[in-house]
Amino acid sequence: MQSDRPNPAFYPLLAALIFMAVGPIVLMLANSFKLDVDIISGTSGLFFLPTIQNYETALCDVLWYEPEHLDFCQFKFGGAFINSIIIALVSTALTLVLGCMAAYALVRFRFMGRDAASFTTLMVRMVPPAVLLVPVFGLWNNDFCIGKRTWLGELIRDSFGGRGDVCLEGTHSGIILIYVAMNLPFVIWILQSFIVQVPRSLEEAARVDGAGPFQVFFQIVLPLIKPGLAAAAIFTFRIAWNEYLLASALSDRDTKTVPILIVNNVSEFNIEWGVIMATGMLLAIPPIIFTLFASRQIITGMTAGAVKG
Q: For residue range 204-222, what is the model confidence (pLDDT) as tens digits?
């Protein structure tokens, strides 16, 4: 008779995996409440006198009071946080809208080059973002610009100021377009597997009842692929939220995101480890909240068809 007891090595392995996953987070959280002297010395461990100076330094531009230990607020976390939220949410929404429509067309419609288009989306996703850095930087600075001598350029000059041409480089729109193009192949690829599982009979029944193409798509297909949309949204948001390389090349002082702010706080002669740890903890909050919210949609979609026996 085969025993149901797990292997003795199961629990040590599980404990090691939990330690590897949770350990860095606990260490970063603990260091975020330490002074740089305590972090560098490494003697305090988990027993230390906590302080909120690092969080005050990181949030100095949004606090309603002036921290006593700061003479000047150099760490503009509030503006970078808003930029990250705008770029991540808008790029995620646009990617899901375009991706689900493209995935539906690739699965349901028959046209010349359908298989090639589906395979190309997967191949494009394999291209490293670093390969796109130089060409995108050149295009965004030269080709996709509104000349200052055109009527639209003059209107923008008179309304918002500035002296040069209006280009996508240094704007929220430029970064959002890049993130949409970067994440769209992955969203199309992952949503195709969910749309394939939707029975064609449901769509045909809706058409017999008089539903149009858009009604079939939005009222029949989308509710059934809600878990796929939630999963794609989680991955897309996390990639857009944490991306640094392309954003560092395309953003300027007014559109820089939180990852850029953290890296810019590191210099050759001064590294504020406590502030970096505190900012890292603040940086992790929105993806966690977004993941928890989207995970609820996954569970709701998976249990929507369950029936009582």
A: 888 888 888 888 888 888 8
Q: Is residue 137 part of a domain?
A: yes
Total domains in the chain come to: 1
* Residue carrying structure tokens 């010395």: 41
Residue 101 is assigned to a structural domain of this protein: yes
- Residues with Cβ < 8 Å from 95, sequence gap 6 or more? 179, 180, 183, 184, 187, 232, 236
What is the Cα–Cα distance from 279 to 78, expressed in whole angstroms?
11
Whether residue 32 lies inside any domain: the answer is: no
Q: How far apart are CA 31 and CA 276, in angstroms?
A: 9
Per the listing, tokens 């979609």 go with 301
Residue 63 located in a structural domain: no
Range of the domain at 236: 80-277
Asked if residue 231 lies in contact with residue 190, where contact means CB atoms within 8 angstroms, the answer is yes
pLDDT at 305 (0 to 100): 47
In whole angstroms, what is the distance from residue 26 CA to residue 45 CA? 11
Whether 152 has a pLDDT exceeding 80, the answer reads no
Spatial separation of the C-alpha atoms in residues 82 and 256, rounded to whole Å: 10
